[in-house]
Design a protein that fits this description.
The radius of gyration is 50 Å and the shape is elongated. The protein has 15 helices and 15 strands. Strand 7 and strand 8 (167-169) form a beta hairpin. 51% of the residues lie in helices and 13% in strands. Helix 9 (376-462) crosses helix 12. The chain has a six-stranded mixed β-sheet with strand order 1-2-10-11-5-9, sandwiched between helices. Strands 4, 6, 7, 8 and 13 form a five-stranded antiparallel β-sheet that branches. It is α+β, with helices and mostly antiparallel strands and 584 residues long.
């Protein structure tokens, strides 16, 4: 076609030719479909971005105990904190790591179905202490499901909580003087938690002896009218050592049956007590009346007629039996009516009171909250989940720090061992070189002595006349003096002499592993396995590596008082910390 241009062309290659010049003229109906098809074929898909590491690391140190409202708001941005919130205390920081290592060893047996609801039974009324503070003790049961090792630990760790219409809550109750005198004593609040677990969830936690006081929340309640004065409220959440009691069971079916049987026994006792008083007052009167009547009739019968007709007697007994049946029927109907009213009252109380539903939820599920979860008791459970996650961060971060420091020590010892091995090899090579030089000097001395001896023998042989010796004798003498040997024969003999003189090396046997080396190897494997598990906690996406910046933040959150120089030396200068190769 001709030159391109924006002028009108004739479409024959001369002049403009539409927008491109040459070819067919552009048609409005085409709309460039061909061009779009070509462009679609040539279009390349953008490369898939690499998977970003999913790491949840606290922006503040995790081992602090007391946290005021501003710090909590900064830590937990998506958590709704009520206007009455004062402070939060993380008591798990004051426990030892050894006491927390066995938390995931065993798990209690939980036989419950969420569709069965547990009605809140009557509990003791709260008691305020001398300072007007209301104390609450709550409990969260920990379970661990490690059947699938591929799951992240936040999915393996589960908690038994209660579900209400407003959200998830912890099982608990307010302190009463019946639990003990001092509510600040952990033993007293444990009694409150045990009582609450029995009455509200049907679980007997008195077998648990080691209770972990996990966190504590304080509120400042304003006055509401004349009946509710201003007061301070304290909530303490405990984690009992259910992992030490794997036989601990929770069966909703049994609890509901036992609860209903207990109520039936109480009602039967009440019913048995009611008629016990009335018949005592009525029966004597009826008997006296019957005796008086019989006496009168007997006297009249004696006066009027001494013998009574047998038919009249049978008729009277039949009337008595009929009256007795009617009374029994009326008592049965009264009891049925009372049972019906009791059931209606129970149903009314069930609808009136909160209804608990036991459920098991993972740590990841508890951490999945937002600002719309405004129920205060649900916020307490979310704060407990955050504290538990921070505890795992601390324990696994400490394991990583110790592993990196131990690995540095391993590398240093390995480097020293390589250096010592290289030095020993150099000394051995030098010793071999000395031996070789000594052998060469001895061979040279032997050769020199042999040459001198041959020269002396030759000088002694020249004094005799050569013509007197026969030819065979000359050849024999030459053979004895070594003159008839070729150069190759001489080389072979010297080589054989060298090999004979060279000390033969015995085959080296591989050294057997000693008991100390075996114990050291097993200890290393154990440390690497624990470190790999700790790294995987922070590497939730399973990339197999961590970024140095994240690893530095993990170490700084431990508040180990390490300078920047040591932290960078421990982390290293690589772009990625490949823990899979480090923990092989």
């Amino acid at each position: 076609g001709g030159g391109g241009g924006f002028g009108k062309g004739n479409g024959k290659g001369k002049g403009g030719g539409g927008y491109g010049g040459g070819g067919r003229q552009w048609d409005r109906d085409d709309r460039g479909d061909d061009r779009r098809d070509d462009r679609r074929d040539d279009r390349r898909r953008s490369p898939t971005p690499p998977k970003r590491p999913e790491v949840k690391i606290s922006i503040l140190p995790v081992a602090t105990v007391s946290r005021q409202y501003p710090e909590c708001k900064r830590r937990y941005k998506d958590m709704h904190l009520s206007s009455d919130f004062v402070k939060h205390l993380s008591h798990w920081v004051q426990t030892t790591r050894q006491s927390r290592e066995t938390m995931f060893s065993n798990s209690p047996v939980l036989n419950f179905d969420p569709k069965f609801a547990l009605p809140v039974t009557k509990n003791l009324s709260p008691t305020l202490d001398k300072d007007g503070v209301k104390h609450n003790a709550k409990v969260v049961l920990l379970t661990y499901d490690g059947s699938d090792s591929k799951d992240h630990i936040t999915y393996q760790v589960k908690f038994l909580v209660s579900k209400v219409d407003k959200g998830l809550i912890c099982t608990g109750a307010a302190w009463n003087k019946a639990d003990g005198e001092d509510p600040y004593d952990n033993a007293v609040l444990r009694n409150t938690a045990i009582r609450a677990a029995k009455t509200m969830a049907g679980i007997d936690l008195s077998v648990c002896k080691n209770w972990l006081k996990f966190n504590e929340i304080w509120y400042d309640r304003p006055a509401e009218g004349d009946n509710l004065p201003a007061l301070k409220e304290r909530v303490v959440i405990y984690v009992p050592d259910t992992w030490n009691h794997p036989d601990l069971q929770f069966d909703v079916h049994y609890h509901l049956k036992g609860f209903s049987d207990k109520k039936d026994e109480k009602e039967e006792k009440k019913e048995s007590e009611k008629p016990a008083e009335e018949p005592k007052a009525e029966e004597p009167k009826a008997e006296e009346a019957a005796e008086d009547g019989e006496g009168k009739k007997t006297e009249e019968a004696k006066e009027e007629d001494e013998e009574m007709d047998e038919e009249a007697k049978a008729k009277k007994e039949e009337e008595k039996a009929k009256k007795k049946e009617e009374e029994e029927e009326r008592a049965r109907r009264r009891k049925e009516e009372d049972d019906r009213r009791a059931k209606e009252e129970e149903e009314r109380q069930r609808k009136k009171n909160t209804v608990l539903k036991g459920m098991s939820i993972s740590l990841d599920g508890l951490l999945d909250y937002d600002v719309d979860d405004t129920y205060e008791k649900t916020t307490e459970l979310s704060m407990f989940a955050e504290c538990f996650h921070e505890m795992l961060q601390y324990d696994f971060g400490y394991t990583i720090l110790k592993f990196l420091q131990t690995k540095q020590e391993w590398d240093r010892k390995e480097k020293e061992a390589r250096r010592a091995k290289r030095k020993a090899e150099d000394a051995e090579a030098e010793e071999r070189e000395k031996k070789r030089r000594k052998l060469e000097e001895e061979e040279a001395a032997k050769k020199e002595e042999a040459a001198k001896a041959a020269e002396d023998a030759k000088e002694a042989g020249e004094e005799e006349p050569a013509a007197d010796k026969p030819k065979d004798t000359e050849m024999k003498d030459a053979a004895e003096n070594g003159e008839g040997k070729t150069e190759e024969g001489t080389k072979e003999e010297s080589k054989e002499e060298k090999e004979d003189d060279k000390p033969k090396e015995e085959p080296k046997e591989e050294p057997k592993e000693t008991e100390e080396e075996k114990a050291e190897r097993e200890e290393k494997e154990k440390i690497k396995a624990e470190a790999k598990k700790a790294f995987q906690f922070f590497d939730k996406s399973g990339n197999g590596y961590l970024r140095p910046a994240d690893l530095e933040m993990i170490i700084y959150n431990l508040e180990a008082d390490l300078p920047r120089r040591i932290v960078r030396d421990v982390v290293g200068t690589d772009e990625r910390v490949d823990y899979t190769s480090m923990c092989k």
